Amino acid sequence: MSVYEKEGSPFWQIDFELFGRRYTRSSGTKQKSVAKAMEREWRRQIHEAHAAGVLGADTDIGFDVAAQIYWQSLTPEKRTTTLEAQIAMVVGLVGRDTPIANVDSLMMDAIMQDFRQRPNRNNPAATIGVASANVVPDIVSRVLNSAKKKLKITLPLQPERSEHYIYAEERIRELSYAEERELEKTSPPDFIPIWKLSIELGLRRKNCVTLRWSQVDWENMIITVRQKGGGIHVVQISETAAEILQYQRLPSRRHPEFVFTFKTKYPVKRDGKVYPSGSRVPINPGYFSQLMRRAFRKAGIADFTVHDFRHTCATRLLRVSNIDMVRKLLGHITEKMSRRYAKLVENDVRGAQMVRRAMDEVSRNGADLGADGGIDPRSLAGVLAKRLLVDRRMRDLAMDAARNMPRAA
């Protein structure tokens, strides 16, 4: 039987032979009719590939072998432990012995559906996050593309990576200036310059944390980084960014290779090298995120991630420039990628108007006065609460404005 139930699995399995080869995988569905439809489509694709003469012996190699070919093609600096773990995970999902010719869109659909239902390692009550799930189609694409290049074969059934990406709902979170001041108090001192530079230049976490002095061109005042898609992105060094970098050049902080490091209290082994206590050690991006999450909690900053430093840079810049400037700074390929920040800035206008009306209302009603003669921020806060203005950044704006507003004669 080509479609059957497998003990221990909630999904129907597909298993059949065609042209002397066996094809088997999970359908990823609990409906037998859907599984049979998937089998028919899979058979049709194989018939077409066979008729075209593109199912050769090299396409019979298992996915695990193809993954090893891809790993060997990488330069030493790209063979990170994170990538190694990701490849091992994807090999387990696809199947070590699964022929690379069998990896198609139907298989990817089933794998992604099953993978997304797994519990999140960091939060068992939640499912796998979007970023973690998107690792799967990305690694599969890299492995198959490497096999095609090295073995000079064709894989007509290869799934399109973009078709299996999961796109989360757009979310823009900006760090308010008040939150920024609190975060300065709770962040590890060696980490403050990192997120300050991210806010200033909009660099991603990895580009900031692992920035090398060789990427900093003082003569032309630029920083060159590699984008997550592999492209080169050049960022102008602003005055504030120059101050941050100059601070990192101080003898007590300077590292011969990396811009940002931390001073270790204990001996640390990193990349085969042992750093004695008191040494300045390169920072791992994951370690940076871990400690920053603690800093966010201590500062009372909710719903904020390390990547939101980049969002903060974009929204602050957009208030004083335009979409094109944001696109160039962040290295966005299209204007559409930057357009999402416009809505937040447009909301500032409405929010500012509400603050202004609230301040007028407080003034008209004989507001409580502070010691310096300005409006008591607590009175303003009460009016804003009644108007349901709950955005923290706008409350901060209102509080600062209230403190600076002179007493009427």
Descriptive overview:
This protein is mostly helical and 409 residues long. It folds into three domains: 3-164, no CATH class; 181-302, Intergrase catalytic core (hpI Integrase, Chain A, Orthogonal Bundle); 343-404. Helices cover 50% and strands 10% of the residues. A hairpin with a 2-residue loop joins strand 2 and strand 3 (21-26). Helix 3 crosses helix 5 (130-151). It is elongated.
Secondary-structure element sequence? EEEHHHHHHHHEEEHEEEEHHHHHH
Radius of gyration using CA atoms only: 27 Å
Question: What is the residue-mean pLDDT, rounded to a whole number?
Answer: 77
Number of domains: 3
In which range does the helix fraction lie? 40-55%
Low-confidence stretches: 367-375, 384-391, 405-409
Largest sheet: 3 strands, antiparallel
* Gross morphology: elongated
Distance between the termini: 91 Å
Helix-strand category:
mainly alpha
Number of helices: 15
Number of strands: 10
Strand order of the largest sheet: 1-2-3
Summary of the model, kept short:
With 409 residues, this protein is mainly alpha-helical. Helices cover 50% and strands 10% of the residues.
